[in-house]
Amino acid sequence: MKSLKRYQYERYAVLCNLAYPRVFKQTNYGFDPNGQRIVYNRFGKVMMRILWSKKSDEVIVVIKGSHSLWDWLLNLGMWQITPKTLGTNYPIHAGYSLLILQESLPGYNSDKLGLSVYERLLSYIVPHIELNKKITFTGHSSGGAISTVLADLVEKKYPKSIKRVVTFGQPAIGGYQFRKRYLLAHKTYRVCCDLDIVTFLPPLPFYYWHVGKLLWLHNERVYENTPTLLRLGKSIVSWAIRPFSYHLMSRYIRNKDFFDDR
């Protein structure tokens, strides 16, 4: 697996942080004036941003983490289901499944009514895939977890269309079958900052499994694939003092300089 380069990490981290504000001017970050589409959730709130430039062969899908009471409540849906309408061959977190399958309200005149978040996403990215552009998924927290499933679904439907998946502070979204059947482990980077307790959720060992390569930013270094028990041991001590401070996107941006330019 190739290393995630510093400039790539920095760009995805900044985009994830900027996904939260209501207004995002994509031209400030090298994307075309018409190089943004927004996927809205059932309440008409921004859930994803699709960003592109004619000069690049990469289209970036940025997915926000939990940002409403509804989203936070869905985090509690920790049982697993196999959403047949998605065409998955593995069960995933029930709450996150609802986030993907919820209706996406139209945001543009050409949008059709009645599409799910997944279907709306496809309507925006398939034209780019047909132009041989590659899709990168990135997201923070639950948005990172959802990124892995959506990227896997797109890869199954459009082989070799995914460039990479980069997540920040994500909880797990699937069980062992998901880990076993996930197609993009060699292209997935799961970034954990210091002692972010959210990266150990849901708290159900062996029922939930992570996928991809772990990059742990800790003590001014990047550690690869650090055993969970080692990270957890350090986390328990820190959690008693500052349980969620390491989960903020600002912490990930602070640590961007840990990555080299290889």
TrEMBL record:
Q: Which SUPFAM superfamilies match?
A: alpha/beta-Hydrolases
**Gene Ontology biological process terms, A to Z:** lipid metabolic process
Checking InterPro entries in the record gives: AB_hydrolase_fold, Fungal_lipase-type, Sec_MonoDiacylglyc_Lipase
Fungal lipase-type domain: residues covered: 60-204
User: Which Pfam families does this entry report, sorted A to Z?
Assistant: Lipase_3
Superkingdom of origin organism: Bacteria
Q: What is this protein called?
A: Lipase
Q: Which organism is it from?
A: Vibrio ziniensis
